[in-house]
Please model this.
Amino acid sequence: MKNSKDKRENVWKRGVERVIDLLSSLFLPFINIMVSVGILKGILIIMIATGIVTEGTATYDILNAMSDAFFYFIPLFLAYTAAKKFDVEPFTAILVACILLHPSMTSVMAMEGAVNFFGLPLRTVTYSASVIPILLAIYCMSFVQKLCYKGIPETFRYLFTPPICVIVIVPVTLLLFGPIGSFVGGWLAKGYEWIYNLSPLLAGVLIGALQPFMVIFGLHWGLFPIALNNVAIYGYDTIMALFGGAVFAQGGAALAVAIKSKDATFKSQALSASFTALLGITEPAMFGVNLRLKRPMICACIAGAIGSAVAGFFGCRAVSFALPALTTLSLFMGHAFVPFLASLTVSFGLAFLFTMAVTIPDLQ
Model:
């Protein structure tokens, strides 16, 4: 009985490690770019908060494009890394991502009413800044490409395989993979409302622990419409307040890694990632540091759960839609502001202490 239980635990452990390794291999190649645009985004937030730049001006639009373009076009980057991972021709994969982000496609997905493709109804989905649809598309493309390579003579293989892949994968993505991502995001949003009504403290624990994985898969976008709607109807929102613990925990874990690392380049990268996390940009800390080393990510999730539980228990709120960051603290002053600051401090501090306390085998 004990051996059987140990085998199940080992299978589960190996499965989790494979998922983490897969995600790391998809995001790690462009982590330096992610860190860079995270810094640019943080600088822009500071400039807005200090009044140097005003939203709605040409200056703001240009700076926003500089800091936001990467996240908007992240399906392109993921198409390339996924193609490498799944052994797909990379330029064909990038072409699929370009099609999903093309202005014509964006216009179609923004249409009101029924949208049809050869009579088949399509669910309108936003593909910019999305993760799940493009990853599923490229994974599926690997099988289509293999079939093409087997069935098409070598003389014409590289001429006909790309268009066949596009013709097959794009409709499948529009009909299946895109709606899957949208459905999961919508289900997540309804689940949050139910859990928060049941217990704000429990909602804080779950959001604090799972928010990093929501970001990894792009599922957090499903909660943003609810947050915006809450502000519009009630004048406040609780979702972003619960995000704070998870955000600051990533920064605390990355700071501990920076202190423990002996590699100068990685130390600098981790330190920059910790700083950008405090400005509300967690991707560099997650993908470049914590998820990459596994144990810091676990420490951050535990600390984030505790910190967000504090925010949930005291009913912390935001009076406008904003990602929790040092530069947006004023938006959380409407209700239980001191407990909110405590939740951020607890998350950051515990993540730092937990990460300092554990052994990290792969630390450089």
